[in-house]
Write a structure and sequence with these properties.
68% helix, mainly alpha
C-alpha cells in the first residue's frame, strides 16, 4: 500500500490551520485556568498559562450564587431553546411552501423577501412594533424576534428543492396532504439543513444582547449576555457580586476581578460549547445516511 504523498502545500495548509486553532483554543483554556485558580494565587498566572494555580470553585459559586445570574441564565436558555425550535419550524415550513411549483406569486414574494433582507428596519421601527404588540419587557419579544432569517430560508429552500418530486407525488397518491408531506417526509429528509440552520439560530439567540437590552428592561427578565456585558465591559461588579454570604469565611475583597470575569465568560460559553459536538455527531451521521448507494 502506497502512503499518501505529503506536499509542501499540504504542510503549509496544515500549519496555518494548526495556528488558527491555537489562536482560539489557547485563550479559552486560559479563561478556564483563571476561573479555576485560587483567588490568592491568580496573580501567579502569566500571559496565556493553561494550568490553574491551585483549584477553587469560589468564582463560580459567587457568580452562580447570585439569584440575578441564575434567573438570567434560565431566561437565556428559554429564549434559545424555544426561539430556535420555532425558528426552525417556521423557516422550514416557509421554505416548503416557496418550493412548490404551483405556488401563485412566488416571484413577487421572493423579491419582497430579498428586499427586506437587504434593507433591514431600524431599531426604532422594531421597538415600535414590539410596543404595539405589547411584547416589551417580555421574553417572547426575543423568542419571536426575527423568527425567519431570509438567508437561512434561502439555504433551506435549496435543500428542499433536491427532494425528488416523484417521492412527494407518490405520497399524494396515497392520500397525504401538505402537513403530512411536511411532517413525515420533508422534515426527516431535511435533517442536515435543519441541524445547520438550527445551530445558526441557536448561536444568534444565545449571543443576542443589544436587542435584549432594549426590549427587556426589568431585572427579572434580563438575560445572561446583558449581565455579561455589564460586568465584563462596563466593569459593574455590583451586578454580580451581591451575595457575599455565599462566601462563608472568605472575604469578598480577596476575590480577583479578572477571575470573576473569566468565570462569567466561561458560564456563558459552556452551553454553546456543549452544542457543537452534539450537532457534529448527528451532522456526520446525516451525511453518511445521505450518501449515494449502488
Amino acid at each position: 500500500m502506497v502512503g499518501k504523498k505529503i506536499t509542501v502545500s499540504k504542510l503549509v495548509i496544515g500549519l496555518l490551520l494548526t495556528l488558527l486553532t491555537l489562536t482560539m483554543f489557547v485563550p479559552i483554556v486560559n479563561l478556564f485556568a483563571r476561573a479555576l485558580s485560587q483567588p490568592d494565587r491568580v496573580h501567579q498566572l502569566k500571559g496565556y498559562d493553561l494550568l490553574p494555580k491551585g483549584f477553587s470553585l469560589i468564582n463560580f459559586q459567587v457568580v452562580l450564587g447570585n439569584p440575578i445570574v441564575g434567573k438570567a441564565l434560565l431566561n437565556s436558555l428559554f429564549i434559545t431553546v424555544v426561539g430556535t425550535g420555532l425558528c426552525i419550524f417556521f423557516t422550514t415550513i416557509a421554505a416548503y411552501v416557496l418550493t412548490r411549483k404551483n405556488l401563485v406569486g412566488k416571484t413577487p414574494i421572493m423579491i419582497f423577501l430579498i428586499i427586506i433582507m437587504i434593507f433591514e428596519p431600524g431599531i426604532v421601527q422594531e421597538y415600535m412594533v414590539m410596543k404595539d404588540l405589547h411584547l416589551l419587557d417580555s421574553l417572547w419579544s426575543m423568542v419571536l424576534y426575527r423568527m425567519i432569517n431570509v438567508y437561512y430560508l434561502i439555504i433551506m429552500m435549496r435543500f428542499l428543492e433536491e427532494i425528488p418530486e416523484s417521492l412527494l407525488e407518490a405520497a399524494r397518491i396515497d392520500g397525504a396532504g401538505h402537513m403530512t408531506l411536511f411532517i413525515r417526509i420533508v422534515m426527516p429528509l431535511a435533517r442536515i439543513p435543519l441541524l445547520t440552520i438550527g445551530m445558526f439560530y441557536a448561536i444568534a439567540k444565545w449571543n443576542e444582547f443589544f436587542k435584549s437590552s432594549i426590549f427587556l428592561s426589568s431585572r427579572e427578565n434580563t438575560v445572561l449576555q446583558v449581565l455579561l456585558r455589564q460586568f465584563v465591559v462596563e466593569r459593574d461588579t455590583s451586578t454580580l457580586v451581591g451575595a457575599a454570604n455565599l462566601l462563608q469565611n472568605n472575604n469578598i475583597a480577596q476575590l480577583d476581578f479578572s477571575s470573576l470575569k473569566a468565570a462569567t465568560i466561561v458560564i456563558a460559553m459552556i452551553p454553546i460549547l456543549m452544542l457543537y459536538p452534539i450537532i457534529l455527531k448527528y451532522y456526520t451521521s446525516g451525511v453518511m445516511d445521505g450518501g449515494v448507494k449502488e
